[in-house]
Amino acid sequence: MIGIVTINDYDNYGNRLQNYALQEVLAELGYNSETLINYPYSNTKVKFILRQIKNFKKKDGYSDNVNRANNFKSFNENIKFNEKKLTPYASDKKYDFYIVGSDQVWNPIFGRLREVDLLSFVRPSKRISYAASFGISSIEENINVSNELKKFKNISVRENKGKEIVKKLSGREDVEVVLDPTMLLDAHKWDSVIKRPKVKMPKKYILSYFLGDNDKYMSKIKTISAAKDLKVIDILNKNSPFFQCGPSEFLYLEKNAELICTDSFHSCVFALIFNKPLVVFERNQNIFSMNSRINTLITNFGLSNIKFDKEISDDNFKLFGNDVYEKINIERQKSIDFLKKSLKKENK
Predict the structure, then answer these.
(1) FRET partner for 227 with CA separation of 20 to 30 A, picked from 1, 50, 94, 251?
(2) What does the DSSP assignment read for 22-85?
(3) Which SS3 state, helix, strand or coil, does residue 284 take?
(4) 10 Å Cβ neighbour count for 302?
(5) Is pLDDT at 182 greater than 70 in this prediction?
(6) CB 320 within 8 A of CB 272
(7) Res. 313 pLDDT band, cuts 50 70 90
């Protein structure tokens, strides 16, 4: 049995989909797994009791939009959870291995990179990270983080910058860059959890999915949509009927779009999986740049042509070539091999 330690964000498509994907990949490799529920306020021993009191009435993390929350809850039924909340005081006896990842489990801006996220309660022989992400390009040196990283049996990260950070902090030369778990499942597997949104669907549309501010980009998107006679589905617009979509409905919208415009890493991933035309925009936000994830994707698979450059044109409606999928298959096998190697028990 394997314990998965990841971010439990019940209002984020990518987070739920990567959680499901890792569970399914482990199952394909012959392992049962459970996702361990944890939150930033309970992932460190520092002021632990005070943090619990302060967050005693904290909500479960689902959206206030009832339909959206129900769609996320429906998708979560695909994931096996251990309902007992994980803390740094936990025992490591239940699971043969603990895997931290994927997603931004090591992003200190999000209150991560603490004891639970570094599996400090787990003996070193059971500690594995899979596609763990810092989400940012650099972090300050921290002796506690450095010491904990050194104890991992095996470490893999999702971005090239993440590999540099771990090497700088721990001196480790054995860190591997692997695919996000969502990329380890093919389109056929994802079809098994797709649901058509229960709203009126346009015949043809552009999917707009921005986690940052998209105001400066929407005029460009609307210009090309008018020229191509396409509707625009702005999925994170709270006034849109599509805001109620959960992860399964999000997959449907990705798979059936004529074009995807996004600043989201996971939106890029599913455009690749379903081979959909894609335009990637720089994320506009007031915190540290989080573009390293998409930059790794673009660099590793030779996708520089998908980056937004002043205008959206006919060239942006082209599908990905076989060379991209040949590269993905190579990296997919490397990622699976990392998991197989990491999950081998050491001889005592």
Answers:
(1) 251
(2) HHHHHHHTT--EEEEP--GGGS-STTHHHHHHHTTT---S--SSHHHHHHHHHHHTTS-EE-SP
(3) coil
(4) 11
(5) yes
(6) yes
(7) very high
Per CATH, the number for 193-323 is: 3.40.50
For residues 181 and 105, the answer to whether their CB atoms sit within 8 Å is no
Same CATH topology for 2-186+330-342 and 193-323? yes
Residue 286: is its pLDDT beyond 60?
A: no
Cβ neighbours around 151 below 10 Å, total: 15
CA contacts within 13 A on the Cβ side of 151: 17
Cα-based distances in Å from 338 to 40, 96, 153, 277 = 28, 17, 12, 30
- pLDDT, averaged across the chain: 93
Residue pLDDT, tens place only, 192-233: 999 999 999 999 999 999 998 888 899 999 999 999 999 999
Q: Residue 233: beta bridge partners?
A: 207
Q: What is the pTM of this model?
A: 0.94
Q: Where are the domains of the chain?
A: 2-186+330-342, 193-323
CATH of domain 2-186+330-342: 3.40.50
Cα–Cα distances in angstroms (integers) from residue 169 to residues 175, 244, 286, 295, 300, in the given order: 12, 41, 26, 22, 24
Amino acid at 271: A
Q: How far apart are CA 232 and CA 312, in angstroms?
A: 14
Res. 132: pLDDT tops 60: yes
pLDDT one-digit tens code per residue, 80-128: 999 899 999 999 999 999 999 999 999 998 889 999 999 999 999 999 9
Residue 1's alpha-carbon distances to 40, 95, 100, 284, in angstroms, are 24, 5, 14, 41
DSSP state, 185?
Answer: S
Separation between Cα atoms, residue 213 and residue 254, nearest integer Å: 20
pLDDT tens for each residue of 161-179:
999 999 999 999 999 999 9
Sequence-distant (6+) residues with CB within 8 A of 90 are 121
Write the DSSP string, 122-163: S-GGGEEEEEE---SS-----HHHHHHHHT-SEEEESSHHHH
Q: What is the CA radius of gyration of the chain?
A: 20
